[in-house]
Every structure is written in C-alpha cells, then in structure tokens.
Amino acid sequence: MKPSLAARLSLRFVALAYLFVLLLVPIGVILYRTFENGVVAFAESISTPAAISALNLSLLIVAIVVPVNVIFGIVVALALVRGRFPGRGLLQAVVDLPFAVSPIVVGVALIMLWGAHGWFGAVEDLGFKVIFGLPGMVLATIFVTLPFVVREVEPVLREIGEEQEQAAATLGANTWQTFWRITLPAIRWGLTYGIVLTVARALGEFGAVIMVSSGFPGVSQTLTLLVHARYIDDHNTFGAYSAATLLMAIAVIVLLLMTLLDRKRSTE
Amino acid sequence: MFTGAVGPLGIGIATLWLSLIVLLPLAALAFHSVSDGLGTFVDAITAPAALATLRITVVVSLVVAAINAVMGTVIAWVLVRDEFPGKKFVNALIDLPFALPTIVASIVLLSLYGPQSPIGVQLNATEPGLVVALAFVTLPFVVRSVQPVLIEADREVEEAAASLGAGNFTIFRTVVLPVLAPAVLGGTGLAFARAIGEYGSIVLIGGNIPYKTQVASQYIQQQIEIDRPVNAAVVSVALLVIAFVVLFVLRLVANRGLRREEDDR
C-alpha cells in the first residue's frame, strides 16, 4: 500500500495532532503552572512536612512490596513453568486477574476480607489493624502489582530450559546453589524489568490505596493521596500541581529505565 | 516426576500466595454481595442509581474503545510506515500514560480542561471530560498491540494487490485490515476493560454527579463511604463480570485466529 503524499501527510497530521492535544499540551500546561512562580516555590511546595511524610510512606510501601513480590513472584513463575500439577491453568489465570479488576474493587474486596466485619476481621481485635493502616495499603499494592514480576520472569525461565540446572544438579550442586549460580543470573534482566514496573505502579497506585487508607496528612497519605487531598480538601491547586510534577518526574525516570532495560534484554 | 523440577513445597507456596492475595479477597467480595440473599442482590443492582452508573460507565467506555480503535490504528500505522523527524520521541511518548500515575493524569487534564483552563475549554464534570480522561490512560493499548503486527505484515501482498490495480482503500480493506483486525480488536477490548474500572484518572475531572457523570467505581466508593457495603459489593461484582466476559470473548477470538493461522500453514 503506497498512499499518496497527501494521504500520508494527513494521516501523520491526524496522529500527531491527537497526541499533541491529548498528551503534550496538558503536560506542558501543568509544567508551566508548576514553575511559573519559580523553582523555589516548587521546591518549597514538595518539601512541606506533609509532602515529605507522603514521600516517605510511598517509599516505605515500595520497600516492602518489591522484595515480597520478587520472592513470591519467582516462586510462582517457577511453579508455572517447571511444575506439572493439576490446576496449573487455573493458577495461570489467577496471575492475570489483578489486571482485570478495578482498583476500587480491589479496595472493596480487601475491606470485605480484612475489615472489621470481614472474614479475617478477628485480626483487628488482636490489635493488628489492616484496613485504614499500613498493612492494608501494602496488601492493596501487592494485589495490583502481583503480575509484573511473574509475567516478566516466566518467559525467560521457559526459554532457558532446565538443562543447565540439571547439569548443575548432576555435578552435585544443591537446590540453593543451582538457583543462585544458574537460574538467578539467567533471569536477572527479566526480573529487573519486572521490578521497575512494580516500583512505578506501587508509587502511582491511587484507587486501591485510597479505599484502605485513613488518609490523614502526615500519617497515612502516600504521594498520590497527597495530590488528591491538596486539590480536593485544601483547594491548594498549586500544591497539587507540584506534587503531580514530582510524580511525573519519577514516571519519566522509570520510562527511561524501561527503554534502557529493553535494549539490554534484547541484545543478550 | 509428578511435580516437575519445582518441589511440592514451591507449588504449595505459589498456590497459597495467590489465594491469600488475590482469590480470598475476591471470594469475600462475591460472598458479601449475596450475603443478604439474592433478593437484596437484585434490588441493589436494579436500583436506579446503580443502573444509571453502570449505563454511564459502559457507554463512555464504548465511546473510548471506539476512539482507541481508530486513533490507535492510525498512530500505529504512522509510527511503522511513515518516516519523520522525532519519530523515536513520539514512539516513547506512547508509553507515558502507562508510566504516569492515574491521579497525575487526572490533574494534568484538569489543568488544561478544568476551571482555570488557559484555552477556555471547560470539560470539568461533563461526559466529554470522562472520555478525554479515559482516552488518555488507555492510549497505549491499541497502538502497542497493532504496531508489532504491522511491522511483521507481509508488504509483498500489498504490492501485488497494487500492481493488479487495486486502489489504496481497496488494499486497506481487503489486505491490511484482515491482518490487523485481531490486534485492533484485542487492544480495543483491553482498553474497554481498563476503562470500565478506571478511577484515579476521572476522580478529579469527572465531577461525580449521580445520573450524569458518576461512573461505577465512584458509585462503589460512595456506597462504602455511606456505609452500604452490600451495594458496593454488588456493583463491584457486576463490574468484574463485565470485565471477565470481555476478556473471555477476546481470548476465544484470539484462539480462533491462532487456529486459522495454523490451518493456513
């Protein structure tokens, strides 16, 4: 198909104009609004006590969720690729489930399980507050990020096969040695890519977290909750723009990392 | 060996983990939705406000899916078949909505289309506002599913058709579109499934006006807030069912496409 020059140019114009209006102009406006009062005002706005505490909470959640997802993600991926057991297809489907569930529904489901009147509501009587506490926010974040590590590690495991691992085992290596020396080095880039996706989503999750957080400024507000609260509760539009710009900067870094890793993965 | 290279311990841990994190909360949700009997379930789902919110959600998501099907294909085509300076940048830009937190998407769009709009366009708390927000967050789906297919597509068939005198439109309709259709459909379905559950990107720009711009996720959130957990659970289940049906149909279509491809060989 060789469209005429006019057709090609008009298609190009339509595509670029759509992206311009939908993505670039809004982002340009928010950047302008954030920095129109100078960089100092922006820096002050993202270093208030509430903002620092929100950043810390977001990072704390990431610091808990990433190791948990890495360990269990690798176990699940190994079970899906190397395991031969009835119900494997079902497990496969469960891994994709979080992608199909609305973040709000994730929050409601967690309340129905862990909330005061939920199935596991008894843990609250033991003094372990899940809903409206840090554990709830962590559980919500794990739910929405669960597929990433599994889905990035799984194809690599399938590709490398079992021969090297079996060879190591024949030579007398135990399970741990085989994992550290053979399996982990092989999956490292896939795993790293999965971690980057997990970090991005964990920092950016909003719907699931707002349902299970008490949302007190300086206590239980993540960065995304801070953006929301500043706009809705405080009518602090500039503060909301600044916090959003901070999150946007993190997202762009993540995007660059993803591009770099993608290149690394495909050259190996 | 029955369990393969992973011991029964590994399989046990994997199953337990997925059950605890994903299955048990959803089971508790489903159980809660019918805990007051089926009559309450039916009442909650047929309540005028619930029906209205589901209707708004599905209609807006269908519009967004249709926009994505057309614009996503055009963008993918331009990114694969066209050459222009800055193409790499545009290509990287496509992933931005996936990397950006949804609440940031909301506030970004609000800065342009909200009360302080520098261009005087007010989409705040209107249906077009919902459409713009959802189009923003679902942009990558169709582009990223059509792009690889276009790269792989056999251009010789197109050239043969052209040498036999077929016009561009005929070639597109009879040669290109059948090859692209499964990818377009797949991406559109994913965009739709994402749109019906979306919350963060519309929470600021949507306005949350019942019977007008309140989408299902906002309705659910509101029901939890006013302590009507059963209503929230029922509408949640409805959303889940819609998403599962869409994804199930997509898988069926994809499998049929695969089988046809195998038959051709």
From TrEMBL, chain A:
Gene expressing this chain: cysW
Complexes and interactors: The complex is composed of two ATP-binding proteins (CysA), two transmembrane proteins (CysT and CysW) and a solute-binding protein (CysP).
Cited Pfam families: BPD_transp_1
Function of the molecule: Part of the ABC transporter complex CysAWTP (TC 3.A.1.6.1) involved in sulfate/thiosulfate import. Probably responsible for the translocation of the substrate across the membrane.
Any one GO cellular component localisation term in the record: plasma membrane
Localization per Swiss-Prot or TrEMBL: Membrane
Superkingdom: Bacteria
Signal peptide boundaries: none
Primary location: membrane
A single MF term (Gene Ontology): ABC-type sulfate transporter activity
Protein name: Sulfate ABC transporter permease subunit CysW
Record's keyword terms, sorted: Membrane, Sulfate transport, Transmembrane, Transmembrane helix, Transport
Membrane topology recorded in Swiss-Prot or TrEMBL: Multi-pass membrane protein
Domain ABC transmembrane type-1: 55-259
Database matches in PANTHER family: SULFATE TRANSPORT SYSTEM PERMEASE PROTEIN (PTHR30406), SULFATE TRANSPORT SYSTEM PERMEASE PROTEIN CYSW (PTHR30406:SF1)
Regions that span the bilayer: 12-35, 55-81, 93-114, 126-150, 191-218, 238-261
Organism name: Rhodococcus rhodochrous
UniProtKB/TrEMBL annotation, chain B:
Transmembrane parts of this sequence: 12-34, 54-80, 92-113, 125-143, 164-185, 232-254
Example GO molecular function: ABC-type sulfate transporter activity
Subcellular location: Membrane
A GO CC term attached to the entry: plasma membrane
Domain of life of the organism encoding this protein: Bacteria
Main location, first listed in the record: membrane
Membrane topology: Multi-pass membrane protein
Family annotation (PANTHER family): SULFATE TRANSPORT SYSTEM PERMEASE PROTEIN (PTHR30406), SULFATE TRANSPORT SYSTEM PERMEASE PROTEIN CYST (PTHR30406:SF8)
Subunit comment: The complex is composed of two ATP-binding proteins (CysA), two transmembrane proteins (CysT and CysW) and a solute-binding protein (CysP).
Function, as annotated: Part of the ABC transporter complex (TC 3.A.1.6.1) involved in sulfate/thiosulfate import. Part of the ABC transporter complex CysAWTP (TC 3.A.1.6.1) involved in sulfate/thiosulfate import. Probably responsible for the translocation of the substrate across the membrane.
Protein name (Swiss-Prot/TrEMBL): Sulfate transport system permease protein CysT
Source species of the chain: Rhodococcus rhodochrous
